[in-house]
């Protein structure tokens, strides 16, 4: 169901050459097994040479002995008529799953020292992305040390006020001090206690900031012990780490640049799951629903099917194209699907139709077209151009090119394709 019309000729021929090499290997192994002239000839006989030259006397037809068929694992299955669920075929584009994309920013202003990754790099969770001089963290450390000193001073003041108030209470009992004076000293203690609580809150705020910058308990204790100078050398260098395994898809950093907390320095995407944004015409929206399974194919991997499901249907129709965006969530464990790849999306519908079907493995691609190898006799196979339709599980419907009951090669088709390409290559070079 994929379209190969846009392929450039050079990549296609590179693929053909690769298949030819495989075909030559098959040819070397099975040369002695190929069908020989029924009259029988000796090795090196001119009649054998004549026979070899006419094994492909009909274009697209391959002669292969029963022994060679067995060695190649060739098996055939009759094309049959059966009901197939109808599929809606639409185009789509591969995009990252935005719920699996991390937009990484520095926590503080700083100057980039080293960048450890590049666009396209694969990273693991915890890998270093960037090292930078953290300008703001030194300021916070100094403020934190100052706040700790003020807390100690405030605690001392509270202790003094508590002692003064205790003496005032004793003097008040014997009439040695006026009630107003005692009340004033009680108020001074409350003010001192309130100031201490305010300063403790400031210390807590600074501790939160420092922990967000990555300071350890040991480093905080050094500052608490009055040794911030022992921490500052480490503080001046900070690191951005990958939050999870993925691929670097965004990159805005270079050594010597000033970065700010608002700057998105990296984007990392986990591409084990991707979105495929499909275009569904307005008239077909009634055929789809959330959760509906989909099958995805791309030109880069002929015959490979990726499974997914619909997880979003847009509420907006494009006024120019009359299509709605339909988002499909597709599993991509080996990251074969690349961002911005064009794809063909097959969406199963609730309707069925009777059609001729063949096993999925029977369909091969040769020179950008879909073909099926049909057994014409015990030792003769014909390449047949076909037009494919819906796919369901392990079956593909054939809308043109195959008749009911014809025997198609369901296993071993790759070997036949290799032999065919070998013959085409030899014919193109005058052999």
Summarize the structure.
The chain is α+β, with helices and mostly antiparallel strands and 431 residues long. It has helices spanning 9-30, 46-53, 66-72, 135-173, 179-212, 217-224, 232-235, 413-428, and strands at residues 61-63, 75-78, 80-96, 101-104, 110-115, 122-123, 128-134, 237-241, 246-251, 258-259, 266-269, 273-281, 293-297, 306-313, 323-331, 342-359, 364-366, 369-377, 380-385, 387-392, 395-400, 407-411.
Can you count the helices? 8
Radius of gyration: 38 Å
- Could you state the CATH homologous superfamily of the largest domain? Efflux pump adaptor protein, beta barrel domain
Number of strands: 22
What would you call the structural class?
alpha+beta
User: What's the quaternary structure here?
Assistant: single chain
Stretches with pLDDT under 50, minimum 5 residues: 1-14, 29-57
Name the CATH architecture of the largest domain: Beta Barrel
Main-sheet strand order equals 3-12-15-14-13-16
Helix content, binned percent: 25-40%
Give a description of the structure.
This protein has 431 residues and is an alpha+beta fold. Helix content is 32%, strand content 33%. The protein folds into 3 domains: 9-95 and 272-428, Efflux pump adaptor protein, beta barrel domain (Elongation Factor Tu (Ef-tu), domain 3, Beta Barrel), CATH 2.40.30.170; 99-132 and 238-268, OB fold (Dihydrolipoamide Acetyltransferase, E2P), CATH 2.40.50.100; 135-236. It has helices spanning 9-30, 46-53, 66-72, 135-173, 179-212, 217-224, 232-235, 413-428; strands at 61-63, 75-78, 80-96, 101-104, 110-115, 122-123, 128-134, 237-241, 246-251, 258-259, 266-269, 273-281, 293-297, 306-313, 323-331, 342-359, 364-366, 369-377, 380-385, 387-392, 395-400, 407-411. The strands form 5 sheets. Strands 3-12-15-14-13-16 form a 6-stranded antiparallel β-barrel. Helix 4 packs antiparallel against helix 5 (179-212). The longest helix is centred in the middle third of the chain and has 39 residues, at 135-173. It starts with 8 loop residues before the first helix and ends with a helix. The model is unreliable at 1-14 and 29-57 (pLDDT under 50).
């Amino acid at each position: 169901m994929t379209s190969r019309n846009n392929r450039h000729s050079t990549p296609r021929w590179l693929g053909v050459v690769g298949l030819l090499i495989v075909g030559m290997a098959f040819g070397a192994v099975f040369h002695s097994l190929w069908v020989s002239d029924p009259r029988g000839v000796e090795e090196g006989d001119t009649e054998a040479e004549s026979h070899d030259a006419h094994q492909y006397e009909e274009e697209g037809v391959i002669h292969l002995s029963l022994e060679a068929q067995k060695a190649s694992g060739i098996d055939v299955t009759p094309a049959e008529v059966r009901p197939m669920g109808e599929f809606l075929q639409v185009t789509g584009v591969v995009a990252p799953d935005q719920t699996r994309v991390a937009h990484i920013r520095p926590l503080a202003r700083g100057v980039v020292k080293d960048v450890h990754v590049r666009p396209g790099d694969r990273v693991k969770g915890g890998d270093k992305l960037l090292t930078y001089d953290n300008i703001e963290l030194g300021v916070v450390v100094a403020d934190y040390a100052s706040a700790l000193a003020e807390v100690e001073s405030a605690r001392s003041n509270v202790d003094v006020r508590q002692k003064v108030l205790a003496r005032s209470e004793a003097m008040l009992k014997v009439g040695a001090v006026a009630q107003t004076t005692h009340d004033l000293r009680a108020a001074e203690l409350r003010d001192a206690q309130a100031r201490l609580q305010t300063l403790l809150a400031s210390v807590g705020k600074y501790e939160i900031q420092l922990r967000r910058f990555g300071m350890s308990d040991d480093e905080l204790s050094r500052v608490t012990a009055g040794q911030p100078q022992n921490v500052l050398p480490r503080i001046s260098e900070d690191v951005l780490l990958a939050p999870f395994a993925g691929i670097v898809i965004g990159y805005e950093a270079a050594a010597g640049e000033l970065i700010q907390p608002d700057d998105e320095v990296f984007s990392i995407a986990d591409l084990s799951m991707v979105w495929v944004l499909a275009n569904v015409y307005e008239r077909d929206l009634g055929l789809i629903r959330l959760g509906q399974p989909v099958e995805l194919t791309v030109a880069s991997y002929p015959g490979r099917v990726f499974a997914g499901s619909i997880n979003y249907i847009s509420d907006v129709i494009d006024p120019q194209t009359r299509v709605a965006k339909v988002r499909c969530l597709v599993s991509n464990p080996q990251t074969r699907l690349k961002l911005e790849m064009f794809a063909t999306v097959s969406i199963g519908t609730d309707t069925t139709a009777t059609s001729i079907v063949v096993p999925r493995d029977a369909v091969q691609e040769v020179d950008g077209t879909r073909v099926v190898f049909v057994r014409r006799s015990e030792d003769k196979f014909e390449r047949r151009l076909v037009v494919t339709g819906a796919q369901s599980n392990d079956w593909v419907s054939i809308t043109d090119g195959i008749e009911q009951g014809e025997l198609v090669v369901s296993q071993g088709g790759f070997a036949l394709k290799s032999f065919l390409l070998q013959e085409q290559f030899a014919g193109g070079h005058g052999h």
